[in-house]
Amino acid sequence: MADAEPRLAATVVVVRPGESGIEVLMLRRGPSSRFGAGFVVFPGGSVDPEDDELAARWFGTPDERARACAVRELIEEAGLAATDRGVLVATTEREGLGSVDEGPPPLDLLPEIARWVTPNVVAKRFDARFFCVAARSVLDPRPDGLEIDRAWWAPPAEVLEQYPLWEKLMWPTYNTLKELAECSSVEEALSLRMEQVPPPGVTAG
Q1: Which residues contact 161 (CB under 8 A, 6 or more apart)?
Q2: What was the pLDDT predicted at 98?
Q3: Which of 46, 94, 151, 202 sits most deeply, having the most CB atoms within 10 A of its CB?
Q4: Cα–Cα distance between 177 and 59 in angstroms, integer?
C-alpha cells in the first residue's frame, strides 16, 4: 500500500561548462545506502527537521526548507558547498556556509527546475524538488564513502548511454538528464523548467 503522504525531499543538479555543451555532477549510491543502492543519481535526500533552521538562517524563512536540504545534501554527499561565491570545496562536512566570508547562493542562482512526486502506486513516495546550480571552476567532488561510493562529472548524454533506465537510473533522474542533454550552456540548464512526466503505464495525478 502506498504512503498517504509523500515525504518531502530535495535534489540539486550541479552543472559546469564542458568541452561541448555541459557536464553534470553524478553520484552512485553505495551498497549500504538506505534508498536506491547502486543507482546513479544527483545529490539529494529527504528533508530533515534541521532544514527548517538552516533555511531560516540561509534564506530568511523556514519555507525554503527544500532548498536548504539541497544545499546541505551537496555538502554531505559530495563535499561541495553552493555559496554566494559559487560552488566551492567544503573544508569540512558543514563549513562553507553562514560564515563571515561565505553565505548561501542567491535564490536566482539556485532555481527550482522541476518537482517530482512519486505516483501513488509506489509504496515509498517522495515529493522531490529539483534545484540547479552552476559550478564555474574545476572541482573534485568527495563522496562520503557511506551512502555515496563514487562521484564524477560527465556529459548528460554519456550518462544516459552508460546507465539504463530502471536498472541504474530512476525515472526523474532519467528525464532530467534527457532535458540537460539538450542544453548547450550552463545558462540553459539554469533556465530549465520541467513538467512532471508519469512513467509508462502510470496515469498522471
Answers
A1: none
A2: 46
A3: 151
A4: 28
